[in-house]
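Design request, C-alpha coordinates follow.
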Protein backbone atom coordinates (compact mmCIF):
# COMPACT_ATOMS: atom_id res chain seq x y z
CA UNK A 1 0.00 0.00 0.00
CA UNK A 2 1.48 3.32 -1.11
CA UNK A 3 0.90 5.43 2.01
CA UNK A 4 2.19 8.97 2.40
CA UNK A 5 2.20 9.70 6.12
CA UNK A 6 0.79 13.06 7.24
CA UNK A 7 2.70 13.10 10.52
CA UNK A 8 3.28 16.61 11.91
CA UNK A 9 6.53 15.74 13.74
CA UNK A 10 9.68 13.76 12.94
CA UNK A 11 9.23 11.11 15.70
CA UNK A 12 5.72 10.49 14.41
CA UNK A 13 7.12 9.06 11.18
CA UNK A 14 8.72 5.89 12.58
CA UNK A 15 5.75 5.25 14.88
CA UNK A 16 3.44 5.49 11.85
CA UNK A 17 5.47 2.82 10.00
CA UNK A 18 5.02 0.16 12.70
CA UNK A 19 1.39 1.16 13.24
CA UNK A 20 0.24 1.28 9.61
CA UNK A 21 2.85 0.08 7.09
CA UNK A 22 5.09 -2.76 8.31
CA UNK A 23 5.21 -5.13 11.28
CA UNK A 24 7.94 -4.10 13.71
CA UNK A 25 9.96 -7.16 12.64
CA UNK A 26 10.41 -5.68 9.14
CA UNK A 27 13.91 -4.57 8.11
CA UNK A 28 14.44 -0.85 8.70
CA UNK A 29 18.21 -0.50 8.18
CA UNK A 30 21.19 -2.45 6.87
CA UNK A 31 24.88 -1.92 7.53
CA UNK A 32 28.00 -3.95 6.93
CA UNK A 33 29.77 -5.53 9.89
CA UNK A 34 33.09 -6.98 8.76
CA UNK A 35 32.09 -8.90 5.60
CA UNK A 36 28.37 -9.31 6.30
CA UNK A 37 25.38 -7.05 5.71
CA UNK A 38 23.42 -6.99 8.98
CA UNK A 39 19.70 -6.19 8.98
CA UNK A 40 18.09 -4.18 11.78
CA UNK A 41 14.32 -4.35 12.36
CA UNK A 42 12.08 -1.51 13.49
CA UNK A 43 11.63 -3.32 16.80
CA UNK A 44 15.39 -3.45 17.45
CA UNK A 45 15.75 0.20 16.48
CA UNK A 46 12.87 1.39 18.65
CA UNK A 47 14.21 -0.47 21.68
CA UNK A 48 17.53 1.38 21.39
CA UNK A 49 15.85 4.69 20.60
CA UNK A 50 13.68 4.49 23.73
CA UNK A 51 16.68 3.44 25.81
CA UNK A 52 18.69 6.49 24.68
CA UNK A 53 15.70 8.79 25.29
CA UNK A 54 15.36 7.36 28.81
CA UNK A 55 19.07 8.01 29.44
CA UNK A 56 18.82 11.57 28.10
CA UNK A 57 15.91 12.31 30.42
CA UNK A 58 17.71 10.74 33.35
CA UNK A 59 20.71 13.10 32.97
CA UNK A 60 18.40 16.09 32.79
CA UNK A 61 18.03 16.79 29.04
CA UNK A 62 14.96 18.92 28.40
CA UNK A 63 12.86 20.01 25.46
CA UNK A 64 14.77 22.50 23.32
CA UNK A 65 18.25 21.41 24.46
CA UNK A 66 20.73 21.09 21.60
CA UNK A 67 22.42 17.68 21.29
CA UNK A 68 25.28 17.40 18.81
CA UNK A 69 26.57 14.65 16.52
CA UNK A 70 29.84 14.35 14.63
CA UNK A 71 29.58 10.89 13.12
CA UNK A 72 29.52 9.07 9.79
CA UNK A 73 26.28 7.66 8.35
CA UNK A 74 25.01 4.54 10.04
CA UNK A 75 22.47 3.11 12.49
CA UNK A 76 24.02 4.98 15.45
CA UNK A 77 23.15 8.30 13.80
CA UNK A 78 19.52 7.18 13.49
CA UNK A 79 19.26 5.87 17.07
CA UNK A 80 20.65 9.10 18.51
CA UNK A 81 18.61 11.37 16.23
CA UNK A 82 15.30 9.61 16.86
CA UNK A 83 15.97 9.44 20.60
CA UNK A 84 16.54 13.17 20.93
CA UNK A 85 13.75 14.07 18.49
CA UNK A 86 11.07 12.24 20.47
CA UNK A 87 11.85 14.13 23.69
CA UNK A 88 11.88 17.49 21.93
CA UNK A 89 15.66 18.05 21.88
CA UNK A 90 17.34 19.63 18.84
CA UNK A 91 19.65 17.72 16.49
CA UNK A 92 22.86 19.71 15.89
CA UNK A 93 24.82 17.73 13.32
CA UNK A 94 28.42 18.68 12.58
CA UNK A 95 30.23 17.75 9.38
CA UNK A 96 33.01 15.25 10.21
CA UNK A 97 35.35 17.16 7.88
CA UNK A 98 35.17 20.47 9.74
CA UNK A 99 38.23 21.84 11.52
CA UNK A 100 38.63 21.89 15.30
CA UNK A 101 37.97 25.65 15.34
CA UNK A 102 34.73 25.20 13.38
CA UNK A 103 33.60 22.34 15.64
CA UNK A 104 34.29 24.50 18.70
CA UNK A 105 32.37 27.42 17.19
CA UNK A 106 29.27 25.32 16.45
CA UNK A 107 29.27 23.65 19.89
CA UNK A 108 29.50 27.05 21.59
CA UNK A 109 27.05 28.83 19.31
CA UNK A 110 24.43 26.09 19.76
CA UNK A 111 25.28 25.59 23.46
CA UNK A 112 25.31 21.84 22.86
CA UNK A 113 24.75 19.67 25.94
CA UNK A 114 26.08 16.37 24.57
CA UNK A 115 27.95 15.19 21.48
CA UNK A 116 28.13 11.77 19.82
CA UNK A 117 31.54 11.06 18.22
CA UNK A 118 31.82 8.47 15.45
CA UNK A 119 35.46 7.32 15.48
CA UNK A 120 38.79 7.93 17.27
CA UNK A 121 39.78 10.74 14.89
CA UNK A 122 36.55 12.65 15.51
CA UNK A 123 36.67 11.89 19.24
CA UNK A 124 40.17 13.36 19.51
CA UNK A 125 39.03 16.43 17.58
CA UNK A 126 36.25 17.02 20.11
CA UNK A 127 38.51 16.31 23.10
CA UNK A 128 40.87 19.10 22.01
CA UNK A 129 38.12 21.74 22.19
CA UNK A 130 35.77 20.27 24.82
CA UNK A 131 37.01 22.38 27.73
CA UNK A 132 36.34 25.51 25.69
CA UNK A 133 32.62 24.61 25.52
CA UNK A 134 31.01 25.44 28.85
CA UNK A 135 27.60 23.97 27.98
CA UNK A 136 28.94 20.47 27.21
CA UNK A 137 28.15 17.88 29.91
CA UNK A 138 28.70 14.56 28.08
CA UNK A 139 30.94 13.30 25.26
CA UNK A 140 29.73 10.00 23.84
CA UNK A 141 32.18 7.97 21.69
CA UNK A 142 30.45 5.41 19.46
CA UNK A 143 33.35 2.92 19.43
CA UNK A 144 35.24 0.64 21.82
CA UNK A 145 38.51 1.34 23.66
CA UNK A 146 37.92 5.08 23.74
CA UNK A 147 39.39 5.31 27.24
CA UNK A 148 42.96 5.30 25.93
CA UNK A 149 42.30 8.67 24.30
CA UNK A 150 40.56 10.37 27.24
CA UNK A 151 41.66 8.76 30.52
CA UNK A 152 44.70 10.98 31.06
CA UNK A 153 42.86 14.18 30.19
CA UNK A 154 41.27 16.59 32.64
CA UNK A 155 37.86 17.20 31.11
CA UNK A 156 34.94 19.29 32.34
CA UNK A 157 32.46 17.05 30.50
CA UNK A 158 31.91 13.41 31.35
CA UNK A 159 32.80 10.68 28.84
CA UNK A 160 30.62 7.59 28.40
CA UNK A 161 30.55 5.04 25.57
CA UNK A 162 27.45 4.82 23.37
CA UNK A 163 27.07 1.12 24.20
CA UNK A 164 27.01 2.03 27.89
CA UNK A 165 24.41 4.74 27.23
CA UNK A 166 22.12 2.16 25.61
CA UNK A 167 22.81 -0.41 28.32
CA UNK A 168 21.99 2.03 31.12
CA UNK A 169 19.02 3.36 29.15
CA UNK A 170 17.46 -0.08 28.77
CA UNK A 171 17.38 -0.35 32.56
CA UNK A 172 15.72 3.09 32.77
CA UNK A 173 13.01 2.65 30.11
CA UNK A 174 10.46 1.23 32.56
CA UNK A 175 10.44 4.27 34.81
CA UNK A 176 10.80 6.75 31.91
CA UNK A 177 8.19 5.36 29.48
CA UNK A 178 5.46 7.79 30.62
CA UNK A 179 7.89 10.73 30.41
CA UNK A 180 9.02 9.71 26.89
CA UNK A 181 5.45 9.41 25.64
CA UNK A 182 4.46 12.71 27.26
CA UNK A 183 7.49 14.47 25.73
CA UNK A 184 6.71 13.10 22.28
CA UNK A 185 3.07 14.22 22.49
CA UNK A 186 4.14 17.69 23.67
CA UNK A 187 6.19 18.40 20.53
CA UNK A 188 4.60 21.03 18.31
CA UNK A 189 5.04 21.13 14.52
CA UNK A 190 6.51 24.62 14.97
CA UNK A 191 9.19 23.40 17.42
CA UNK A 192 12.79 23.31 16.19
CA UNK A 193 13.82 19.83 15.04
CA UNK A 194 17.40 20.61 14.05
CA UNK A 195 20.10 23.21 13.65
CA UNK A 196 22.09 22.79 10.46
CA UNK A 197 25.03 25.13 10.12
CA UNK A 198 25.58 26.69 6.72
CA UNK A 199 28.88 25.94 5.05
CA UNK A 200 30.20 29.46 5.44
CA UNK A 201 31.39 30.29 1.91
CA UNK A 202 30.83 33.97 2.66
CA UNK A 203 31.54 34.26 6.38
CA UNK A 204 30.74 32.80 9.79
CA UNK A 205 28.51 29.70 9.69
CA UNK A 206 24.89 30.30 10.68
CA UNK A 207 22.63 27.77 12.39
CA UNK A 208 19.55 27.20 10.21
CA UNK A 209 16.51 26.46 12.40
CA UNK A 210 14.32 23.86 10.73
CA UNK A 211 11.09 22.89 12.45
CA UNK A 212 9.38 19.52 12.60
CA UNK A 213 6.77 20.90 10.21
CA UNK A 214 9.46 22.14 7.78
CA UNK A 215 10.84 18.63 7.46
CA UNK A 216 7.67 16.53 7.54
CA UNK A 217 5.86 18.81 5.09
CA UNK A 218 8.87 18.77 2.78
CA UNK A 219 8.94 14.98 2.86
CA UNK A 220 5.22 14.64 2.34
CA UNK A 221 4.90 16.98 -0.62
CA UNK A 222 8.07 15.75 -2.29
CA UNK A 223 6.58 12.26 -2.22
CA UNK A 224 3.37 13.55 -3.79
CA UNK A 225 5.56 14.87 -6.59
CA UNK A 226 7.40 11.52 -6.93
CA UNK A 227 4.69 8.87 -6.36
CA UNK A 228 6.88 6.05 -7.70
CA UNK A 229 8.66 5.60 -4.35
CA UNK A 230 7.11 2.65 -2.52
CA UNK A 231 7.54 0.88 0.81
CA UNK A 232 9.39 -1.96 -0.92
CA UNK A 233 12.21 0.30 -2.11
CA UNK A 234 15.79 -0.01 -0.89
CA UNK A 235 17.82 3.20 -0.59
CA UNK A 236 21.62 3.18 -0.44
CA UNK A 237 22.84 6.08 1.70
CA UNK A 238 26.30 7.56 1.24
CA UNK A 239 25.90 11.36 1.29
CA UNK A 240 26.39 12.83 4.79
CA UNK A 241 23.36 12.87 7.08
CA UNK A 242 24.80 16.04 8.57
CA UNK A 243 23.51 17.70 5.39
CA UNK A 244 19.78 18.32 4.98
CA UNK A 245 19.58 16.79 1.47
CA UNK A 246 20.49 13.24 2.50
CA UNK A 247 18.65 13.50 5.79
CA UNK A 248 15.39 14.49 4.15
CA UNK A 249 15.60 12.79 0.75
CA UNK A 250 16.84 9.42 2.04
CA UNK A 251 16.45 9.05 5.81
CA UNK A 252 13.14 10.86 6.41
CA UNK A 253 11.65 9.79 3.06
CA UNK A 254 12.33 6.19 4.09
CA UNK A 255 10.78 6.81 7.50
CA UNK A 256 7.65 8.20 5.86
CA UNK A 257 7.22 5.38 3.36
CA UNK A 258 8.66 2.43 5.25
CA UNK A 259 11.55 1.93 2.82
CA UNK A 260 14.75 0.17 3.85
CA UNK A 261 17.99 2.16 4.24
CA UNK A 262 21.34 0.48 3.54
CA UNK A 263 24.35 2.51 4.69
CA UNK A 264 27.36 2.45 2.36
CA UNK A 265 30.70 1.75 4.04
CA UNK A 266 32.46 4.68 2.40
CA UNK A 267 32.69 6.62 -0.84
CA UNK A 268 35.64 4.43 -1.86
CA UNK A 269 33.54 1.27 -1.41
CA UNK A 270 30.34 2.72 -2.89
CA UNK A 271 30.62 0.88 -6.22
CA UNK A 272 31.15 -2.42 -4.41
CA UNK A 273 28.25 -1.73 -2.03
CA UNK A 274 25.94 -0.92 -4.94
CA UNK A 275 26.65 -4.31 -6.45
CA UNK A 276 26.04 -6.01 -3.08
CA UNK A 277 22.76 -4.42 -1.93
CA UNK A 278 21.32 -3.61 -5.38
CA UNK A 279 19.48 -0.38 -4.43
CA UNK A 280 16.33 0.74 -6.21
CA UNK A 281 16.70 4.43 -5.26
CA UNK A 282 19.73 6.53 -4.40
CA UNK A 283 20.38 10.19 -3.72
CA UNK A 284 23.58 11.47 -5.24
CA UNK A 285 25.53 14.52 -6.31
CA UNK A 286 26.38 15.40 -9.94
CA UNK A 287 30.04 14.41 -9.52
CA UNK A 288 29.13 10.75 -8.91
CA UNK A 289 27.01 10.70 -12.05
CA UNK A 290 29.82 12.34 -14.01
CA UNK A 291 32.21 9.58 -12.92
CA UNK A 292 29.80 6.82 -13.98
CA UNK A 293 29.31 8.61 -17.32
CA UNK A 294 33.04 9.11 -17.89
CA UNK A 295 33.87 5.49 -17.14
CA UNK A 296 31.07 4.12 -19.33
CA UNK A 297 32.00 6.37 -22.27
CA UNK A 298 35.69 5.56 -21.93
CA UNK A 299 35.04 1.81 -21.86
CA UNK A 300 32.61 1.98 -24.77
CA UNK A 301 34.69 4.19 -27.05
CA UNK A 302 38.06 2.58 -26.31
CA UNK A 303 36.91 -1.01 -26.84
CA UNK A 304 37.66 -0.77 -30.56
CA UNK A 305 36.26 -2.52 -33.61
CA UNK A 306 32.72 -3.85 -33.57
CA UNK A 307 32.27 -3.25 -29.82
CA UNK A 308 32.75 0.49 -30.25
CA UNK A 309 30.43 0.55 -33.28
CA UNK A 310 27.72 -1.26 -31.27
CA UNK A 311 28.21 1.12 -28.33
CA UNK A 312 27.96 4.22 -30.55
CA UNK A 313 24.88 2.81 -32.32
CA UNK A 314 23.19 1.97 -29.01
CA UNK A 315 23.79 5.45 -27.58
CA UNK A 316 22.28 7.02 -30.69
CA UNK A 317 19.21 4.76 -30.39
CA UNK A 318 18.88 5.65 -26.71
CA UNK A 319 19.04 9.35 -27.55
CA UNK A 320 16.27 9.03 -30.17
CA UNK A 321 14.01 7.16 -27.73
CA UNK A 322 14.64 9.68 -24.96
CA UNK A 323 13.90 12.62 -27.24
CA UNK A 324 10.69 10.95 -28.43
CA UNK A 325 9.54 10.47 -24.83
CA UNK A 326 10.41 14.09 -23.96
CA UNK A 327 8.18 15.24 -26.81
CA UNK A 328 5.36 12.96 -25.60
CA UNK A 329 5.67 10.68 -28.62
CA UNK A 330 5.75 6.90 -28.96
CA UNK A 331 9.12 5.73 -30.35
CA UNK A 332 7.36 3.35 -32.77
CA UNK A 333 7.85 -0.34 -33.51
CA UNK A 334 11.21 -0.17 -35.33
CA UNK A 335 12.90 2.20 -32.87
CA UNK A 336 11.34 0.34 -29.94
CA UNK A 337 12.78 -2.97 -31.20
CA UNK A 338 16.19 -1.37 -31.72
CA UNK A 339 16.04 0.02 -28.18
CA UNK A 340 15.41 -3.42 -26.67
CA UNK A 341 18.46 -4.73 -28.50
CA UNK A 342 20.56 -1.72 -27.43
CA UNK A 343 19.52 -2.31 -23.83
CA UNK A 344 20.48 -5.98 -24.00
CA UNK A 345 23.86 -5.35 -25.67
CA UNK A 346 24.98 -2.11 -23.97
CA UNK A 347 22.69 -0.38 -21.46
CA UNK A 348 22.11 -3.39 -19.21
CA UNK A 349 25.87 -3.85 -18.85
CA UNK A 350 26.28 -0.25 -17.62
CA UNK A 351 23.28 -0.55 -15.26
CA UNK A 352 24.65 -3.78 -13.79
CA UNK A 353 27.50 -1.73 -12.29
CA UNK A 354 24.90 0.05 -10.12
CA UNK A 355 23.35 -3.23 -8.97
CA UNK A 356 20.92 -3.52 -11.86
CA UNK A 357 17.77 -2.48 -9.98
CA UNK A 358 17.96 1.35 -9.89
CA UNK A 359 14.68 2.88 -10.96
CA UNK A 360 15.57 6.47 -10.08
CA UNK A 361 18.55 8.55 -8.99
CA UNK A 362 17.81 11.82 -7.20
CA UNK A 363 20.50 14.40 -7.90
CA UNK A 364 21.02 17.45 -5.69
CA UNK A 365 23.70 19.63 -4.16
CA UNK A 366 24.68 21.26 -7.45
CA UNK A 367 23.80 21.71 -11.09
CA UNK A 368 23.79 18.55 -13.20
CA UNK A 369 25.44 19.15 -16.59
CA UNK A 370 22.96 18.60 -19.43
CA UNK A 371 25.09 16.00 -21.18
CA UNK A 372 25.22 13.88 -17.99
CA UNK A 373 21.45 13.99 -17.55
CA UNK A 374 21.02 13.12 -21.23
CA UNK A 375 23.41 10.15 -20.95
CA UNK A 376 21.44 8.56 -18.12
CA UNK A 377 18.20 9.21 -19.96
CA UNK A 378 19.68 7.54 -23.03
CA UNK A 379 20.56 4.35 -21.12
CA UNK A 380 17.18 4.23 -19.38
CA UNK A 381 18.03 5.40 -15.85
CA UNK A 382 15.87 8.27 -14.67
CA UNK A 383 17.73 11.07 -12.92
CA UNK A 384 15.37 13.35 -11.03
CA UNK A 385 16.95 16.69 -10.22
CA UNK A 386 15.91 18.61 -7.15
CA UNK A 387 16.56 22.15 -6.00
CA UNK A 388 16.63 23.88 -2.66
CA UNK A 389 18.81 25.15 0.14
CA UNK A 390 19.35 24.23 3.77
CA UNK A 391 17.09 27.21 4.54
CA UNK A 392 14.27 25.63 2.48
CA UNK A 393 14.27 22.24 4.22
CA UNK A 394 15.58 21.68 1.40
CA UNK A 395 13.27 20.85 -1.53
CA UNK A 396 11.55 23.62 -3.45
CA UNK A 397 11.28 21.81 -6.77
CA UNK A 398 11.93 18.30 -8.03
CA UNK A 399 11.59 16.59 -11.39
CA UNK A 400 8.44 14.58 -11.97
CA UNK A 401 9.11 10.96 -12.83
CA UNK A 402 7.07 11.09 -16.04
CA UNK A 403 8.16 14.54 -17.21
CA UNK A 404 11.90 15.07 -17.30
CA UNK A 405 13.11 18.26 -18.95
CA UNK A 406 16.90 17.98 -18.98
CA UNK A 407 18.59 21.11 -17.73
CA UNK A 408 15.80 21.97 -15.28
CA UNK A 409 15.18 21.05 -11.63
CA UNK A 410 11.53 20.17 -11.99
CA UNK A 411 8.14 21.36 -10.93
CA UNK A 412 7.43 23.38 -7.78
CA UNK A 413 6.29 21.08 -4.96
CA UNK A 414 2.76 21.57 -3.53
CA UNK A 415 2.08 24.13 -0.83
CA UNK A 416 4.69 26.78 -1.63
CA UNK A 417 5.09 29.78 -3.94
CA UNK A 418 8.21 30.41 -5.99
CA UNK A 419 8.75 33.76 -7.71
CA UNK A 420 11.30 35.24 -10.08
CA UNK A 421 12.36 38.75 -9.07
CA UNK A 422 14.35 41.33 -11.00
CA UNK A 423 17.71 41.68 -9.23
CA UNK A 424 17.91 45.46 -9.69
CA UNK A 425 14.33 46.77 -9.65
CA UNK A 426 12.90 44.07 -7.33
CA UNK A 427 9.93 43.69 -9.66
CA UNK A 428 8.40 40.21 -9.43
CA UNK A 429 8.03 38.79 -12.92
CA UNK A 430 5.97 35.74 -12.00
CA UNK A 431 4.73 33.69 -9.05
CA UNK A 432 4.43 29.98 -9.73
CA UNK A 433 2.91 27.17 -7.65
CA UNK A 434 2.39 23.46 -8.15
CA UNK A 435 -1.23 24.08 -9.08
CA UNK A 436 -0.78 26.80 -11.72
CA UNK A 437 1.82 24.73 -13.60
CA UNK A 438 1.77 25.11 -17.40
CA UNK A 439 4.10 22.88 -19.47
CA UNK A 440 4.67 25.58 -22.09
CA UNK A 441 5.39 28.47 -19.68
CA UNK A 442 8.73 30.29 -19.87
CA UNK A 443 9.59 33.33 -17.73
CA UNK A 444 12.19 36.06 -17.61
CA UNK A 445 15.36 35.50 -15.58
CA UNK A 446 15.96 36.86 -12.08
CA UNK A 447 16.52 35.92 -8.44
CA UNK A 448 14.54 32.92 -7.18
CA UNK A 449 12.50 33.71 -4.05
CA UNK A 450 10.16 31.40 -2.12
CA UNK A 451 7.60 31.42 0.66
CA UNK A 452 5.58 28.67 2.30
CA UNK A 453 5.99 25.61 4.50
CA UNK A 454 9.59 24.90 3.44
CA UNK A 455 11.08 28.21 4.64
CA UNK A 456 13.19 27.98 7.80
CA UNK A 457 12.22 29.52 11.11
CA UNK A 458 15.34 31.67 10.86
CA UNK A 459 19.02 31.68 11.75
CA UNK A 460 19.80 30.66 15.32
CA UNK A 461 20.15 33.80 17.46
CA UNK A 462 20.83 35.96 14.40
CA UNK A 463 17.74 38.14 13.85
CA UNK A 464 19.53 40.65 11.62
CA UNK A 465 20.86 37.95 9.30
CA UNK A 466 17.38 36.39 9.23
CA UNK A 467 15.77 39.71 8.30
CA UNK A 468 18.33 40.14 5.51
CA UNK A 469 17.06 37.03 3.69
CA UNK A 470 13.36 36.83 4.68
CA UNK A 471 11.55 40.02 3.73
CA UNK A 472 8.47 41.59 5.31
CA UNK A 473 6.15 39.65 3.00
CA UNK A 474 7.65 36.31 3.97
CA UNK A 475 9.71 35.78 0.82
CA UNK A 476 13.02 33.98 1.38
CA UNK A 477 15.65 35.28 -1.03
CA UNK A 478 17.69 32.28 -2.21
CA UNK A 479 20.52 34.19 -3.87
CA UNK A 480 20.11 31.89 -6.87
CA UNK A 481 19.41 33.16 -10.38
CA UNK A 482 16.98 31.32 -12.61
CA UNK A 483 13.78 31.26 -14.59
CA UNK A 484 10.91 28.95 -15.49
CA UNK A 485 11.36 26.91 -18.67
CA UNK A 486 8.58 24.67 -19.99
CA UNK A 487 6.94 25.08 -16.59
CA UNK A 488 9.94 23.73 -14.70
CA UNK A 489 12.38 25.75 -12.63
CA UNK A 490 15.78 26.27 -14.25
CA UNK A 491 18.83 27.45 -12.30
CA UNK A 492 21.32 29.78 -13.96
CA UNK A 493 23.78 30.42 -11.14
CA UNK A 494 24.34 31.90 -7.69
CA UNK A 495 23.85 35.67 -7.52
CA UNK A 496 27.06 36.02 -5.49
CA UNK A 497 28.99 33.97 -8.06
CA UNK A 498 28.23 36.35 -10.90
CA UNK A 499 31.29 37.83 -12.57
CA UNK A 500 31.08 41.26 -14.18
CA UNK A 501 33.93 41.84 -16.61
CA UNK A 502 35.66 45.17 -17.23
CA UNK A 503 33.18 45.94 -20.01
CA UNK A 504 30.11 45.39 -17.80
CA UNK A 505 29.16 41.98 -19.22
CA UNK A 506 27.49 39.69 -16.66
CA UNK A 507 28.90 36.16 -16.66
CA UNK A 508 27.39 33.33 -14.60
CA UNK A 509 30.19 30.81 -13.93
CA UNK A 510 28.16 27.60 -13.54
CA UNK A 511 26.90 27.15 -17.14
CA UNK A 512 30.33 28.18 -18.48
CA UNK A 513 32.11 25.77 -16.13
CA UNK A 514 29.71 22.97 -17.07
CA UNK A 515 30.51 23.51 -20.74
CA UNK A 516 34.21 22.87 -20.11
CA UNK A 517 33.40 19.96 -17.78
CA UNK A 518 32.13 18.06 -20.80
CA UNK A 519 35.81 17.35 -21.41
CA UNK A 520 36.94 14.06 -19.80
CA UNK A 521 40.33 15.72 -19.32
CA UNK A 522 38.94 18.32 -16.89
CA UNK A 523 37.85 17.43 -13.37
CA UNK A 524 37.10 20.90 -11.97
CA UNK A 525 36.81 24.45 -13.32
CA UNK A 526 37.18 27.58 -11.21
CA UNK A 527 36.32 30.56 -13.38
CA UNK A 528 37.94 33.98 -12.89
CA UNK A 529 37.44 37.39 -14.45
CA UNK A 530 35.48 39.72 -12.16
CA UNK A 531 36.33 43.31 -13.17
CA UNK A 532 38.93 41.94 -15.62
CA UNK A 533 39.09 42.28 -19.37
CA UNK A 534 38.68 38.58 -20.08
CA UNK A 535 37.94 35.20 -18.49
CA UNK A 536 40.64 32.89 -17.12
CA UNK A 537 40.44 29.77 -14.96
CA UNK A 538 42.16 27.41 -12.60
CA UNK A 539 41.57 23.93 -13.99
CA UNK A 540 42.03 20.62 -12.21
CA UNK A 541 42.79 17.88 -14.76
CA UNK A 542 41.52 14.31 -14.43
CA UNK A 543 44.24 12.53 -12.49
CA UNK A 544 43.26 9.11 -13.80
CA UNK A 545 43.33 10.20 -17.45
CA UNK A 546 46.51 12.22 -16.91
CA UNK A 547 48.33 9.25 -15.42
CA UNK A 548 47.11 6.96 -18.16
CA UNK A 549 47.98 9.33 -21.03
CA UNK A 550 51.41 10.46 -19.82
CA UNK A 551 52.39 7.35 -17.80
CA UNK A 552 52.72 9.32 -14.57
CA UNK A 553 53.26 7.85 -11.12
CA UNK A 554 51.62 8.98 -7.89
CA UNK A 555 54.77 10.91 -7.00
CA UNK A 556 53.98 13.38 -9.81
CA UNK A 557 50.99 14.61 -7.79
CA UNK A 558 53.04 14.95 -4.61
CA UNK A 559 55.46 17.54 -6.02
CA UNK A 560 55.58 20.85 -4.13
CA UNK A 561 54.64 22.93 -7.18
CA UNK A 562 50.94 23.79 -6.90
CA UNK A 563 50.54 24.16 -10.65
CA UNK A 564 51.57 21.91 -13.54
CA UNK A 565 54.08 23.60 -15.85
CA UNK A 566 54.69 20.76 -18.34
CA UNK A 567 53.89 22.30 -21.72
CA UNK A 568 52.92 18.97 -23.21
CA UNK A 569 50.20 18.51 -20.59
CA UNK A 570 49.07 22.13 -20.88
CA UNK A 571 48.72 21.74 -24.67
CA UNK A 572 46.82 18.47 -24.18
CA UNK A 573 44.23 20.17 -21.94
CA UNK A 574 44.16 23.24 -24.18
CA UNK A 575 42.92 21.10 -27.08
CA UNK A 576 39.64 20.62 -25.20
CA UNK A 577 39.53 24.18 -23.89
CA UNK A 578 39.61 25.38 -27.51
CA UNK A 579 37.05 22.76 -28.56
CA UNK A 580 34.43 23.64 -25.95
CA UNK A 581 35.07 27.39 -26.15
CA UNK A 582 33.30 27.29 -29.50
CA UNK A 583 30.02 26.60 -27.67
CA UNK A 584 30.27 29.87 -25.73
CA UNK A 585 30.02 33.57 -26.43
CA UNK A 586 33.43 35.21 -26.91
CA UNK A 587 33.26 37.09 -23.60
CA UNK A 588 32.57 33.77 -21.77
CA UNK A 589 35.56 31.88 -23.17
CA UNK A 590 38.62 30.94 -21.13
CA UNK A 591 41.57 32.85 -22.55
CA UNK A 592 44.30 31.60 -20.19
CA UNK A 593 44.40 28.95 -17.48
CA UNK A 594 46.52 27.34 -14.81
CA UNK A 595 46.49 23.58 -14.17
CA UNK A 596 46.27 22.76 -10.48
CA UNK A 597 48.18 19.59 -9.62
CA UNK A 598 45.69 18.32 -7.02
CA UNK A 599 42.00 19.12 -6.44
CA UNK A 600 40.77 21.89 -4.16
CA UNK A 601 40.26 20.45 -0.69
CA UNK A 602 38.30 20.90 2.52
CA UNK A 603 41.48 20.40 4.55
CA UNK A 604 43.00 23.46 2.88
CA UNK A 605 39.81 25.45 3.44
CA UNK A 606 39.24 25.81 -0.31
CA UNK A 607 35.85 24.10 -0.53
CA UNK A 608 32.91 23.55 1.79
CA UNK A 609 31.66 20.14 2.98
CA UNK A 610 29.08 20.33 0.18
CA UNK A 611 31.93 20.74 -2.34
CA UNK A 612 31.25 24.39 -3.14
CA UNK A 613 34.32 26.48 -3.90
CA UNK A 614 35.15 29.24 -1.41
CA UNK A 615 35.77 31.97 -3.97
CA UNK A 616 37.33 34.53 -1.63
CA UNK A 617 39.67 31.96 -0.09
CA UNK A 618 40.84 30.62 -3.46
CA UNK A 619 41.29 34.06 -5.01
CA UNK A 620 43.35 35.24 -2.02
CA UNK A 621 45.42 32.07 -1.75
CA UNK A 622 46.36 31.97 -5.44
CA UNK A 623 46.40 35.73 -6.06
CA UNK A 624 49.90 35.74 -7.55
CA UNK A 625 49.12 32.92 -9.98
CA UNK A 626 45.83 34.59 -10.94
CA UNK A 627 47.54 37.89 -11.63
CA UNK A 628 50.01 36.01 -13.82
CA UNK A 629 47.12 34.78 -15.97
CA UNK A 630 46.46 38.37 -16.96
CA UNK A 631 50.09 38.97 -17.91
CA UNK A 632 50.31 36.01 -20.28
CA UNK A 633 50.00 36.59 -23.97
CA UNK A 634 49.20 33.04 -25.05
CA UNK A 635 45.55 32.65 -25.83
CA UNK A 636 43.60 29.45 -25.33
CA UNK A 637 40.94 30.41 -27.84
Amino acid sequence: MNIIAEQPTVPGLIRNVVANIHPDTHTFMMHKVKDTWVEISYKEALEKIDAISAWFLDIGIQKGDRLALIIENGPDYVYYDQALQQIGAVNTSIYPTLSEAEVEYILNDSEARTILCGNPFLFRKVLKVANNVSSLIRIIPAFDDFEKFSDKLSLNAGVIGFKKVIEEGLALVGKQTHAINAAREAILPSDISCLIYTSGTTGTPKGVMLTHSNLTQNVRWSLVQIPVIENTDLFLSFLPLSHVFERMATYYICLNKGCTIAFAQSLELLAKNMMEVKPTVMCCVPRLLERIHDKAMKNGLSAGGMKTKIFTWAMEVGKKVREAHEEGKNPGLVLGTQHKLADKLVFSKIKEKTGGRLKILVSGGGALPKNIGAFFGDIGVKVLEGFGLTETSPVMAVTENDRIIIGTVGRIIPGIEVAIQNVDTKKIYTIQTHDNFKPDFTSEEGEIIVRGHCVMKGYWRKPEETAAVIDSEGWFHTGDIGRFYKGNLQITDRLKNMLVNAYGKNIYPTPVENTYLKSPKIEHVFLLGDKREYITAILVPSRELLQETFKLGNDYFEKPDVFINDQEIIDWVNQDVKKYSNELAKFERIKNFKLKRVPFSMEEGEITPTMKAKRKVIEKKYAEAIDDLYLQETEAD
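Comment from the thread starter after seeing the answer: thanks! The chain is about 40% helix and 20% strand.
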